[in-house]
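User: Show me sequence and structure for the first protein, then do the same for the second.

Assistant: Starting with the first protein.
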Amino acid sequence: MEATVDDDAIYALAAGKVLQQHRERGGMSQRGLARAAGVSQSTLSRVERGEGVADLVFLRRVAGALGCAAGDLVGDIDETWLRMGRAAEELGGVEVDPAEAPEDPAGSGRGRWARAGAALGVTALGGLAAMAAAALLSERDRRGG
């Protein structure tokens, strides 16, 4: 089965990598974070891989266990998603700026991210998500906030 590459799929990748980076920087295992947040480890694992959808209750619980606000996590996810678009443009020569209006009338963004997925590969997009999330948190660490 071919992976669907659209705004939602890419956002899920970004969300997963942001959560994983926060967890690892906090020195927590998946099992430890899942237990502290009151969520299942399998759900946390799926979300970190970009295969599951994190609802607001899940984000609030995980954020609390990580010692931050859910809004901070969402902000990090949004910024990671935007950085992924810029990096995909540079690496793949494909215009995928997620801040622009979607090309298709349904608003799914399948056109821009599908081109990026075709140019770079879905696995590479996952790598971009990981790098963008790590860079964001590293920059914040250097600024002291």
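Switching to the second protein now.
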Amino acid sequence: MVAALVWVVPAAAANAVAAATDVAVLVLLTFLAVIVGFAFGGFVAARAAATGPGADAPLQHAAAAGALAYAVVQAVLVVVAVARGRSVSPLGIAFTALLAACAGALGGLLALRSPRPTEV
């Protein structure tokens, strides 16, 4: 999850700035960067789960990493939105949480299919 946050937090901040500029392409690119961050977190979580003690359920770890990283970022964003008097869409939050979990699982799938680095 921490690996995802390293990528997602700056990308989410860039997305917020892009949303204020009303440049649709920039908003889309920064949103895709956020999704790639969730996939990166899933990749790292699956790689750790596949090689760690027990080596069980790497895809579940990957999906959980994406979803938990989203939950952390979204919790902060909900507080900011409420403090600014903006509305919060529970359906949008649920959809994006599922998207983050799916992106994490996709990253986990890539981790399981990629060659593992050899130790020297």
